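Data deposition worksheet. Section B asks for the primary sequence of the deposited chain exactly as it was used as input, without tags or linkers unless they were present during the calculation. Section C holds the resulting structure in token form. Section D is free text for depositor observations; keep each observation to a single sentence. Incomplete worksheets are returned to the depositor.
Section A, Depositor: J.P.
Section B:
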Amino acid sequence: MQFDDVWIPYGGYWSTPFCGWQGSFANLPPIPFAAEVAARALAERGIAASDIDGVCLGTTVASKHSFYGAPWFAGLAGLGHVSGPTINQACATSVRCVVQAAQELESKSANVYLAAAADRTSNGPHVFYPNPAGPGGTGDSENLVLDSFGHDPFAKNSMLQTAENVAREAGITREAQEEIAILRFSQYTTALADDGAFLKRFMPWPVEVKDARGKKVVATVVGDQGVYPTAAQGLAALKPVLEGGTVTFGTQTHPADGNAAMILTSSRDRARDLSPRGKADVRLLSYGQARVKKGFMPMAVVPAARLALERAGIEAGELASITTHNPFAVNDVYLARELKLGPERMNRHGCSLVWGHPQGPTGLRSIIELIEDLTMQGGGFGLFTGCAAGDSAAAVVLKVSVR
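Section C:
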């Protein structure tokens, strides 16, 4: 899919820090939390609620009242005059939210659209499914987060197994994965430099966490939580998670909690009007989606990226910046080889391999970091691509022109 006239106001986006499993965000209801952050971010950017005439919410882990999804989020965020869909496409949810916004804008159904995503993997629901035909009427149950990570009901394998399958078939060694993990952590340290100057370009900072009554501040978050220092000696000491495998806990991501959002508009002039910084023009060019054979999820990033690049009318060599959702280091090794990209050109300020994966919001944060990195590079074409459950992947291409 190619987009003709879809723009992102420079600075008209945000992402909370990502807090690792059972961290500071573990007890926050994800949709009200995202709405609170959205209301704050809009106010800080001087964007009025009346400017927005479309909204969608991406969320993949069920939470209390999430049945009401996007309308509930919008109402809590001060956008009670708009409604829209609630979207769940596993780890591709962020891209699908962006595409939903672009389609609404191109069809003239909206002029200014807010695409938001929120998830909490901590304290995920334990679901009971009645089954009168079960032994003694016993029902079925699942842990919505852990069981989903551990078993694809179609491919009959875990997500971790897909990484091992790709490593085996593509000849990706443990050493190659560890080299990527070390590089990505080193790149993330640049985001922390100067008291987190890069992250402060788009993160609400600090984020106060309140108790269940919403009165007492129980924690103050000023950056990502759950990030582990990565070094060669430490990685070498880890055992593979699967016996006989190559993937360790040091070369895969960790579950996290957080939210992110982005405004998109139907014209460059409108995007400029809404931009709180007015330094660059950001245009969304194309989208690509792909699916590969059963049990080879990390491979899907390549055909998705190629399709998005083809639709944008550019080659991989023309890209000034690339960000990825890489739950496994295998992803980036494979993508770099297939597209003939230098790994150091990708994820210059870190990635989900380092700062964690709260599912729905992950891709949005990566796209935001892509925009900021392109601006720092003086503009150019950028690609985001990331894999998703079901051996699938999604990608977008955008262009930043610095003024």
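Section D:
The CA atoms of residues 271 and 317 lie 28 Å apart.
DSSP finds twelve helices and 15 strands in the chain.
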